[in-house]
Structure formats: C-alpha cells, structure tokens
C-alpha cells in the first residue's frame, strides 16, 4: 500500500540530495534503498529510460513509504503519465518542456525541470517549478550558481551532474537548495561487490560534508 501520497519537502531538506538511479535492477535498488534509508537519506529518482522504470517506482513506493520516490528523464507527456500512474511523487526533467511543467503544476505534483541559462531558469520557476534543476552543472560549477543567485535569489536551484563528495559543499556554499547526484553517490564498485554496508558509509561521508546545511 502506498501510504505517503505527496512529496515531503521536510524529508528532502533533512538530506537535500536527489539520488538518481539509472540502469539498475529492482533487486539491486532494494538493497541500495535500505542503505540509503539507514544513512538518513530520503529522496530517490528513477530515470524513465531505465528498463522497467514504472514497475521499479511502484515497488519502491510500496516497500519504502518513508522515502520520496520520483521519476527522472521525463521528456514528454507520455513519460509523465507513465510516471504518475506508477505513483511517482515528484518529476524531474532534463529539459524545459512547458507542457510537462504545466501539467505537473496543475496536478500539484512537485517538479524539478531542467534549465541551463538564466532565462530558462527564470521561466521554469515562474511556471511553478518547486526548484530548478541546473543541468548539466559539470562545466558551470558553483560560481555559476552564486552568480545566478545574486539577481535571482528567490529561486531554488538544484544543480545536477558533476556533483561529488569532493565539491558538494561548495555548491551549497554558493546557495544551492539541493543537488542531484548519480554515479558519484551510487558507487559502482561498492554496488557490484554488494557491499551495501560500505555504501551506507559512503552516503554518511557525503552527508557529513553538508551537515551545517541540513535541517
């Protein structure tokens, strides 16, 4: 039974990182999710280009009601409908698709649309985005976040791609409301070795880097 229907901002800000799951099996994700919860992390995104993504989202919603479970790489209305039918509590897009944004906002669904330029960022926010995903943040870096936040300080930014344990703190120092992390968070070596205790410790080490920014 899917107990918690809506996205919890309170839980998100206890550990303001969206963990991005792509291309992993449901069995692996179950083990990973247990380590995630054990480390005090609460928000997971399953990308829609993962095989069986709707089934994975639905299973996670049922088995981990304490987590925020969302759908990523939502690029069109077809993806959106599949994600919501599966029970996704939030939507993440890599692009600015205004139809998807409007539809999510109209249904009171938390959405983090992808944007790159200040104009795109402002447009996404003005349409009702809960936060704007800065993607890809690899080349932009923390300085871009700080520069954008100067004139657009009322907007919540969620830089994604290129975030790692070594630089996560600098993005929060620059004013990011949260970040999105994929392979740097879900260490491939630890997962392949089924070292989920090690993965939990890895989560805790990253979380420790941003302790002062947690609620």
Helix content: 40-55%
Biggest pleated-sheet summary: 4 strands, parallel
Query: Would you identify the CATH H-level superfamily?
Result: Aldolase class I
Strand order of the largest sheet: 3-2-1-9
Rounded average pLDDT = 95
Q: Output the helix-strand order.
A: HEHEHEHEHEEHEHEHEHH
- The number of E-state strands comes to 9
* Strand fraction: 5-15%
Q: Which oligomeric state applies?
A: single chain
Tell me, briefly, the overall form: globular
Quickly count the helices. 10
Write the layout of secondary structure elements.
Blueprint: H1 9-14, E1 17-21, H2 26-38, E2 43-47, H3 53-63, E3 68-72, H4 77-86, E4 90-92, H5 98-106, E5 110-112, E6 114-115, H6 118-126, E7 132-134, H7 141-149, E8 157-159, H8 168-173, E9 179-181, H9 188-192, H10 196-209
Parallel strand pairs: 1-2, 1-9, 2-3, 4-5, 6-7, 7-8
Short description:
This protein is 43% helix and 15% strand. With 215 residues, the chain is of the alpha/beta class. The two termini are 29 Å apart.
